[in-house]
Specification:
68% helix; flat; 154 residues; mainly alpha; 2 domains
């Protein structure tokens, strides 16, 4: 069988691997039931859905004809490291700086990976995402997430 779209084939395999890894990792937690789902219920379902989506994309890459085979191009290593670094920075900063500082920091640093970086758009996106995150996680779900830096709450 011939691969007709390299990009879709590789991305489909990546989805399958990540989906199976999440579903497998979720088996260490209790599932509960549909009425009272446990901590493993949602990640397991999401992992299975991601693996199914990956299988569909992979199948499409083997059956749908493309003009040039859609070869995999240059990998943007700089952009990849900036985005992964921003997530690591967020994880390290959240317990110390709180969500209201760490989340805008994450968005702005990750925005630096774009060739079309714009301060105004990055700050606007950071403000909107921070407000929505506060609303969903702190207000609606009542999760205990530090909002303010540690030195302001002592």
């Amino acid at each position: 069988m011939k691969i007709k779209s390299q990009k879709d084939f590789v991305s489909g395999l990546m989805f399958i691997v990540v989906g199976i890894a999440f579903a497998w990792g979720a088996t260490d937690y209790s599932f509960g039931n549909s009425a009272r789902p446990g901590p493993g219920y949602f990640p397991f379902g999401l992992g299975i859905l991601l693996a199914i989506l990956g299988a569909l994309v992979t199948f499409g890459s083997l059956t749908v004809e493309t003009e040039d085979g859609e070869p995999i191009g240059h990998i943007g290593w700089k952009q990849l490291f900036i985005i992964v670094g921003s997530v690591v920075l967020f994880g390290a900063a959240l317990p110390r700086l709180g969500m209201l500082v760490s989340l805008p920091l994450l968005v702005i640093v990750a925005s630096l990976a774009s060739d079309e970086f714009n301060w105004r758009d990055s700050i606007l996106a950071a403000a909107v995402l921070t407000a929505l995150s506060w609303f969903v996680f702190s207000w609606a779900l009542n999760l205990v997430i530090p909002l303010w830096p540690v030195w302001l709450t002592q």
